[in-house]
Amino acid sequence: MNRARAPILKLGETLVVSVQEALMDADLVGLRDELVAEVKMYRATCVIIDVTVLDVLDSFAARTLRHIAQMTQLLGARTVIVGIQPDVAFAMVQLGLTLQGTETALDLEDALSRLNLKLGRDRRAQ
Length: 126
Description:
Layout: E1 8-11, E2 14-18, H1 25-42, E3 46-50, H2 59-74, E4 78-82, H3 86-95, E5 103-105, H4 108-114
Parallel strand pairs: 2-3, 3-4, 4-5
Antiparallel strand pairs: 1-2
């Protein structure tokens, strides 16, 4: 897995994956394996996967994201998929692709809110 395509950032007990470009099937499998290993290693309680840059989500990608959410849940982490574009959501519904049982959010800020996480802010800027 080329980490530049989907870097995994640690933010406290949360892992944030930011998909930077379309991923091939092998990249998705590598991401799945690496992410599950990091959830265990860092004892992460939350995982956020940002797919904002993707303009296509095929059946393999949807299934892999669903499996990642299920695997991380079994390890005690809550997973949220963020940034699914409206056109992608429309196509997924038309093709019968679902992320059933997987939590989704509009964007990273929405996911952090749902997970009751707050990013530290410089108090002087307030």
